[in-house]
């Protein structure tokens, strides 16, 4: 964390630029200082802590030439973003700028609503000409509140632009060169975003995401399917820094955040529309205060049904014979199981790109002719059935049926339309499909009926993967009239709310757990549990196991407090020079990590169900998997307690170490955050992310006291003998896990580990 003395220096430098009138909001906690008497007016919005420290939240920045840059600007793009393309929903930016303003004025200040709010107005213009290029604006600032415990502060803002031509708004604000930037929703590779350009529009995550050669191959030959460092199902216009500030935009339009603007001394936020609305935050003692404040806006997640916390949920597919044979092996090995997840419950679509799930949401008698018998047998063993659904409906079924749900939805206008008022038929490889229009109330009721009748009733499903939600085309036509550009990012919120409403209407909210992938600002208040998308079957921090730890921490700052991943990863790939198959070691290490991080303990067979890819029931894996299914089950009560905290305060189960130890500069380090985390308040977890590794370096934070090794009872702290860093043993089966001295959860689990024969 930036020391408070340095914070004061930063504030002094910024304040020296703004020697004008000062206005106080929210009992004097929020200050707005405006200097309008120069040709380069400046703005400083700051908050005062309970100890009198002043924290800059939004301020003008000085360029390298010494002039104050305009805080606001507008521009016009000749070519807007194109429509969604193929499976990967790549949104290409093909822009040619003209008419970007380069100056602004502050012409008037409205103090009539102080201390509740303040507004100032002026013009943005170009080349010094206010006559020919002026764009009027009004900025309104309103004090809100801190968290429910009286810590921190927040302030809302709204920038209105009176112009019918511009389609971009810029905010260029100070961001010190050594400031550390975290958040932006679900991020998989980047932790500290300083000096990076972060695009915010939800999309497929990509395959490889920078890992070579697979990323380059797919980006070159598969329409950008490889993605990059920032492609994400759940990126968000939200951030928090080590300088005790944070913020979010309420806008649903896309945006780009350049945290390296002006040589790394500024952030330039480009918003694809206006007005621009948002909220700024100040935290005092810990970023936990920021999470508490932001989740009051995003909504908070609720504890999962207890049964989900007692063991493994096994992902399988392939029909009754394959499923029962695999389950028998797991049962014989005494794996602790609570669920059987069959994503192919609706059948398969057969085409050139293999066997794909049939996007027609009803039970397939061809795939599972005795579903009822399978369900009865599993239920008798305490194993619930789970299924799969997404908001897409295939128009090219190959199962010989003429009563497809697509035909029904198309006839009733339930899908997003094109400019010809016809269903906008999109493609995912061989599949042609329509996307449910969640702005159409009749379509929503129809989809809820499908969930209630087909999944909850007929299939007896106690949970499902609620997939996708990233495919709204920018040129789509919605029932409500909202544009595709405005609706693209917010779609997941409405898709998740639909699922949750169906469960509530069925009276099963205490029993059912659906898991979602895509996300926007308010998704945490609408989702049951998140899963982290489609990782490659690798160890790395580009698209492999390590990205799940990064994403858990990043998402937790945006309200994603309850989340998990596909154990073993999902994407199996065979391309020229790029062969990726799941190894037994990877599956074991993933199981170890998920037992101490996942809110559910769920496997996936992978994108290609081949014999060479390791599975939980294989002889060389099943015993290890059984151990960690029991470890996960033992932690049930601990997780449920953490989930209760998530519901009450918004805090995630998986936390960066700076929640508890914000005064230790080391825990703000990006490389360290990729390697270890806190599981609640009691456990420090450092999973193994290197193939073949049998030891790992672990950092014990300053102020953390003594830590006890879960498996062997060894004692560690931040003594000078090793400057807080220790090399610890990490054989397969004993991932580095430590608990704080005095923790009842840790000491009880240590006894259990010994009793079970898992430790020494």
Number of E-type strands: 42
The shape, in one word, is globular
The overall pLDDT average reads 92
Regions with little confidence, pLDDT below 50 for 5+ residues: 1-18, 80-94
How large is the radius of gyration?
26 Å
Percentage of β-strand residues: 25-35%
Global structural class? alpha+beta
By DSSP (H or I, 4+ residues per run), the number of helices equals 16
Distance between the termini: 38 Å
Domain Glycosyl hydrolase family 31 C-terminal: 650-743
Signal peptide: 1-20
Family: Belongs to the glycosyl hydrolase 31 family.
GO biological process, one term: carbohydrate metabolic process
Task: Chart the SSEs and their pairings.
Layout: H1 4-15, E1 21-25, E2 30-35, E3 42-48, E4 54-59, E5 72-77, E6 97-98, E7 103-104, E8 108-110, E9 117-125, E10 135-143, E11 153-161, E12 168-174, E13 181-185, E14 197-200, H2 214-221, E15 235-241, E16 245-249, E17 255-260, H3 261-264, E18 266-271, E19 276-282, H4 287-298, E20 312-316, H5 320-332, E21 337-342, E22 348-351, E23 354-357, H6 371-380, E24 384-389, E25 392-394, H7 405-411, E26 426-428, E27 431-435, H8 441-458, E28 461-466, H9 484-487, H10 491-505, E29 513-516, E30 529-531, H11 545-556, E31 563-564, E32 573-575, E33 578-580, H12 584-595, E34 601-602, H13 622-634, H14 636-649, E35 654-655, H15 670-673, E36 677-679, E37 683-685, E38 695-699, E39 707-709, E40 715-716, E41 725-729, E42 737-740, H16 744-756
Parallel strand pairs: 20-21, 20-34, 21-24, 24-28, 28-29, 29-30, 30-31
Antiparallel strand pairs: 1-2, 2-3, 3-4, 5-6, 5-12, 7-9, 8-9, 9-10, 10-11, 11-19, 12-18, 13-15, 14-17, 15-16, 16-19, 17-18, 22-23, 25-27, 26-27, 32-33, 35-36, 36-37, 37-42, 38-41, 39-40, 39-42
Helix pairs in contact: 8-10, 12-13
């Amino acid at each position: 964390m930036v020391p408070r003395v340095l914070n004061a220096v930063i504030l002094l430098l910024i304040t020296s630029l703004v020697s004008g009138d000062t206005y106080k909001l929210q009992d004097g906690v929020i200050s707005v200082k405006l200097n309008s008497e120069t040709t380069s007016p400046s703005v400083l919005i700051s908050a005062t802590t309970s100890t009198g420290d002043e924290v800059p939240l939004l301020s003008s920045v000085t360029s390298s030439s010494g002039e104050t840059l305009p805080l606001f600007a507008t521009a016009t793009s000749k070519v807007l973003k194109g429509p969604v393309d193929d499976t990967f929903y790549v949104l290409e930016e093909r822009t040619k700028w003209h008419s970007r303003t380069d100056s602004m004025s502050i012409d008037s200040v409205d103090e009539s609503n102080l201390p509740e709010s303040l507004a100032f107005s002026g013009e943005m213009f170009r080349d010094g000409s206010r006559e020919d290029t002026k764009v009027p604006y009004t900025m309104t600032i309103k004090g809100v509140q801190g968290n429910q415990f009286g810590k921190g502060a927040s302030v809302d803002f709204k920038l209105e632009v009176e112009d019918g031509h511009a389609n971009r708004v810029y905010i260029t604000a100070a961001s010190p060169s050594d400031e550390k930037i975290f958040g932006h929703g679900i991020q998989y590779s980047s932790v500290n975003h300083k000096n990076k350009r972060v695009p915010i529009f939800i999309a497929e995550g990509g395959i490889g995401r920078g890992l070579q050669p697979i990323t380059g191959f797919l980006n070159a030959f598969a329409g950008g399917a490889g993605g990059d460092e920032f492609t994400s199902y759940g990126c968000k216009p939200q951030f928090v820094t080590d300088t005790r500030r944070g913020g979010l935009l309420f806008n649903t339009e896309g945006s780009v955040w350049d945290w390296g603007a002006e040589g790394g001394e500024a952030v330039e936020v480009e918003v694809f529309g206006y007005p621009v609305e948002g909220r700024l935050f100040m935290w005092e003692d810990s970023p936990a205060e920021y999470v508490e404040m932001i989740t009051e806006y995003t909504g908070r997640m609720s504890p999962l049904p207890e049964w989900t916390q007692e063991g493994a949920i096994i992902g399988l597919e392939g029909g009754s014979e394959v499923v029962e044979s695999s389950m028998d092996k797991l049962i014989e090995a005494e794996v602790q199981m609570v669920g059987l997840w069959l994503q192919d419950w609706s059948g398969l679509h057969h085409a050139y790109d293999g066997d794909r799930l049939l996007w027609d949401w009803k039970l397939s008698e061809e795939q599972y002719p005795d579903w009822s018998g399978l369900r009865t047998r599993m239920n008798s063993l305490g194993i619930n059935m789970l299924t799969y659904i997404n908001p897409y409906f295939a128009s090219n079924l190959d199962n010989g049926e003429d009563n497809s749900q697509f035909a029904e939805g198309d006839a009733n206008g339930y899908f997003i339309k094109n400019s010809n008022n016809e269903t906008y038929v999109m493609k995912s490889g061989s599949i042609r499909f329509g996307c449910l229009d969640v702005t159409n109330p009749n379509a929503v009721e129809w989809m809820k009926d499908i969930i209630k009748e087909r999944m909850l009733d007929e299939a007896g499903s106690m949970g499902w993967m609620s997939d996708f939600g990233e495919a709204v085309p920018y040129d789509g036509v919605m029932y409500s009239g909202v544009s595709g550009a405005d609706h693209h990012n917010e779609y997941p919120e409405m898709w998740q709310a639909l699922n949750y409403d169906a469960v509530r209407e069925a009276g099963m909210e205490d029993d059912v757990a659906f898991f979602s992938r895509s996300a926007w600002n308010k998704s945490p208040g609408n989702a049951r549990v998140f899963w982290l998308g489609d990782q490659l079957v690798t160890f790395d921090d580009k698209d492999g196991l390590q990205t799940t730890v990064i994403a858990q921490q990043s998402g937790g700052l945006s309200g994603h407090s309850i989340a998990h991943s596909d154990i073993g990863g999902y994407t199996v790939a065979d391309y020229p020079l790029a062969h990726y198959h799941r190894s037994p070691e990877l599956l074991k290490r993933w199981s170890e990590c998920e037992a101490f991080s996942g809110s559910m303990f769920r496997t996936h067979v992978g994108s290609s169900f081949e014999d060479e890819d390791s599975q939980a029931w294989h002889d060389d894996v099943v015993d290890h998997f059984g151990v960690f299914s029991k470890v996960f089950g033992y932690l049930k009560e601990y997780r449920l307690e953490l989930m209760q905290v998530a519901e009450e305060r918004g805090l995630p189960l998986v936390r960066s170490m700076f929640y508890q130890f914000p005064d230790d500069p080391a825990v703000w380090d990006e490389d360290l955050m990729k390697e270890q985390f806190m599981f609640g308040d009691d456990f420090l977890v450092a999973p193994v992310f290197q193939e073949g590794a049998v030891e790992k370096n672990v950092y014990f934070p300053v102020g953390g006291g003594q830590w006890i090794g879960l498996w062997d009872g060894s004692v560690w702290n931040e003594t000078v003998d090793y400057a807080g860093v220790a090399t610890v043993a990490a054989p397969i089966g004993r991932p580095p896990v430590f608990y704080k001295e005095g923790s009842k959860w840790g000491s009880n689990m240590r006894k259990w580990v010994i009793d079970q024969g898992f430790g020494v």
